[in-house]
Specification:
Elements lengths: L1 E5 L7 E5 L10 H15 L16 H25 L18
Antiparallel strand pairs: 1-2
Helix pairs in contact: 1-2
């Protein structure tokens, strides 16, 4: 989960604080934390992201592809919100969720 807040360096800019619940031995929290933080900063809304990645013997190339896809998904989510110009106060549980399945 990430909570937006004014930047400590420049209060005119957004930043965020992230809170993470991890599973021991798993690294997918890194993607979830970065996505939540970026979305919270860009859209200025409280953001919750869950990520589950599993593949036996994943290669470095596959890891890099997953990271690139998570960045692309973050950009898509922010773009969709901005294009629709939906005020954060009007976002409800009925709003479309973004999912990626392999």
């Amino acid at each position: 989960m990430a909570l937006p807040r004014p930047s400590l360096k420049n209060p005119k800019n957004n930043s965020s604080d992230s809170y993470v619940l991890t599973v021991p031995g798993h690294k997918d929290y890194i993607i979830a934390s970065q996505m939540a933080s970026d979305i919270a900063k860009i859209l200025n809304i409280v953001t919750v992201v869950t990520v589950g990645v599993h593949s036996n013997n994943m290669t470095n190339k596959e890891i890099q592809e997953i990271i690139a896809n998570s960045i692309s998904l973050t950009e898509t989510i922010c773009s969709e919100f901005n294009q629709r110009k939906i005020p954060a106060t009007e976002i409800t549980g009925d709003y479309p969720r973004f999912c990626v399945k392999s």
